[in-house]
Amino acid sequence: MSIIKNKSEIGGGELRDQAIDIIEFGIKSVLPEVLMDEVVRYDKNFNSLNVRTSSFNMLRGRIFVVGGGKAAGAMAKKLEEIIGAKHITFGLVNSVSKVKTKVIKVNKAGFPIPDKKGLKGVEEMLKIKDKYKIAENDLVICLLSGGGSALMPAPVSGVSLNDEQIATKALITSGAEITEINTVRKHLSLVKGGRLGEYFKPATVVSIIISDVVGDKLSVIASGPTVPDPSTFSDAVLVIEKYQLINKISASVQNYLREGLNGNRAETPKHLDNTYNYVIGNNSMALENMALRAKQLGLRPIIASVNMAGDPVLVAEKNAKAIVAGEFMDYDCILFGGETTPILPERHGQGGRNMHYAAASLKPLEFLGGEWVMASICSDGADYLNLAAGAIIDQNTLTSIESAKLNIGKYLADYDSYNLFNKLNSALIKTGNTGTNVCDAVVYLRNSAVSRILPS
User: Of 23, 90, 182, 229, whose CB has the highest number of CB atoms within 10 Å?
Assistant: First the structure.
């Protein structure tokens, strides 16, 4: 199976082909079907679900499945294969695309802005507790991955879906970090911040999670629907104030947060005794497999960081300068992982953090010399837009841009990196929906001979 669909356009040359190979190998290693095969088992004799070394026996109980995220559809399909459709009483997950399943319904919903389809899906998930009289002996399996926050909208009383949409757009374009964004989301939701796990009490809730959060913070991934929430209404209000969003969110959201701050709205649960959470895949796994593939190709790789964060332009410039200065001169494959956080201007073009990172890397890498390639890609395949997963550049890209008389600075200022690279025909990486989501990866490759003579 090919992950990158336009290899013939962006490949050509040893380094480009190696970069494509490394990226594909890494993403394939964190596909749901691969990850779940490694850690999830089912024993039909005891109606027992096993996740890693934990067992959940339901001799007298039933199995239900809920959840959401970009990988949730593929996770649901694989879970059916592992457990067997006939052993699942009912299931429904929200995801970004339809997946063919037998019992677990995969509901296609909106991302990154929540929509009515997502809301309807969550409402149906919540109805199953009473419909099936879910009780203590039953097991609710929750499939979660990155994107779950947007894909599982369930606004609190007094806050509409439109209010949630406005707040979501304001937050994700503000430059706020994902922990901050989800702090607000959790306090406006009926299912986030541990409330989904609390809702299904007294049943046991087991969450199988693919992480898209640096550090794998359980309370942040998909806004932690089955995890006790350490954040408070006070924290949520501080985020709104910090990023000056008070005039960008609705009066209903303002009022609800204010009422929570004054103790007139219930806080998110701070303790849960019926939930168990397991991260089965993350960014580090993808990078480790990319490094493994690089070694197989005869390269000398190093994972420079798994904590990449902040403004994509600043991070791109910092990493490029470090490489040019010879900080990694003993390696010809340098890997970074994490997720940068762009601050979008009021009016902006088409682009995403990975394309923006690549565009911002062009000028700093000009001084590297010799042959080199840099690729920045989001593992889910949609770099904010569904048009591309990221971009790949080399020493010839800048020459092509200058020949075409394209102003890199203007495209960066307009946040329009997609249209910059779309004019070149050899830069945009196109994958479509990969079925997984473990943050971003940046791959730098350079000619071995050149890397050994870089100045220290």
Answer: 182
CA atoms within 13 A on the CB side of 296: 12
The rounded distance, in Å, linking the Cα atoms of 67 and 370 is 48
**Tokens, residue 376:** 């920045």
- Given pLDDT bands bounded at 50, 70 and 90, which one contains residue 74? very high
Amino acid identity for residue 291 in this structure: A
Pick the CATH number of 32-281 from 3.40.50.10180, 3.30.70.20, 3.30.479.10, 3.30.1950.10: 3.40.50.10180
Residue 432 CA to residue 269 CA, distance in Å, equals: 37
User: Contact, 58 vs 47, CB < 8 A?
Assistant: yes
Confidence band for 456, pLDDT divided at 50, 70 and 90: very low
User: Considering only 85-89, 215-219, 368-372, which range has the smallest mean pLDDT?
Assistant: 368-372
Q: Is the pTM of this model over 0.85?
A: yes
Give yes or no for a contact between 227 and 194, defined as CB atoms under 8 angstroms apart.
yes
Closest CA to 283 of 206, 192, 380: 380
Tokens of 322: 């470090």
Contact yes or no for 319/327 (Cβ under 8 A): no
Per-residue pLDDT tens over the stretch 256-275? 999 999 999 999 999 999 99
End-to-end alpha carbon distance in the chain? 41
Task: State the virtual CA torsion across 434, 189, 223, 196 in degrees, nearest 10.
Answer: -90
* CA–CA separation, 305 and 53 (whole Å): 29
Three-state SS string over 278-343 comes to EEEECHHHHHHHHHHHHHHCCCCEEEEEEEECCCHHHHHHHHHHHHHCCCCCCCCEEEEEECCCCC
3-class DSSP state of 202? coil
Q: Cβ atoms within 10 A of the Cβ of 394, count?
A: 23
Residue 84's alpha-carbon distances to 65, 77, 180, 203, 315, in angstroms, are 13, 10, 39, 21, 46
